[in-house]
């Protein structure tokens, strides 16, 4: 691989991480405002035209209208949330136009009047279109939550399909 292509790959990896970090800030805003307009702007700013969100509980999209309605409805019982992405890994294909992003999301969230910690495994797909990285699939493959009233950390079930077990 040429030096130029290697440098471009490194720049793309950092750009993909920044796109997902921006998505996290958009989620924080949308979950605080429960605004369909904010959710629509989030989608139009960062997603491919046929982009979607996929969760263990279902799929939102594709399309700005569907995703924005679902996100606004989901956010109705959320006062605030702060998305943090850790253990980030980015794989970019040889032609430098498709990326798989993987991270653990740690989200303190005030939902249904309760302080809650969410631990989420993110596996998203991004496409480079006209030189710009966009989210094609924002994917959540595993999800755990913990109420702040717990006196000790509970055991979490092992998910054999999780990245933790597939990639080490």
From TrEMBL:
Task: Show the SUPFAM superfamilies listed in the entry.
Answer: NTF2-like
- Residues annotated as domain SnoaL-like: 8-137
InterPro entries to which the protein is assigned, alphabetical? NTF2-like_dom_sf, SnoaL-like
Name listed for the protein in its UniProt record: Nuclear transport factor 2 family protein
Q: What is the lineage of its organism?
A: Bacteria, Pseudomonadati, Pseudomonadota, Gammaproteobacteria, Thiotrichales
